[in-house]
Amino acid sequence: MPHHPTADAAPAPRPAPEPFGARLHRSVEARGRLCVGIDPHASLLTAWGLDDDVAGLERFTRTVVEALADRVAVLKPQSAFFERFGSRGVAVLERAVADARAAGALVLMDAKRGDIGSTMAAYADAYLSPDSPLFSDAVTVSPYLGFGSLRPAVDAARAAGCGLFALALTSNPEGASVQRAVGADGLPVAAAVLRRLAEENAGARPLGSFGAVVGATLADPGVDLEINGPLLAPGVGAQGATPADLPRVFGPAVRSVLPSVSRDVLRHGPGVGPLREAAARLVDEVRAALGTDG
Ligand SMILES: O=C(O)c1cc(=O)[nH]c(=O)n1[C@@H]1O[C@H](COP(=O)(O)O)[C@@H](O)[C@H]1O
Question: Which residue positions are annotated as catalytic (predicted)?
Answer without folding.
Answer: 112 (proton donor)
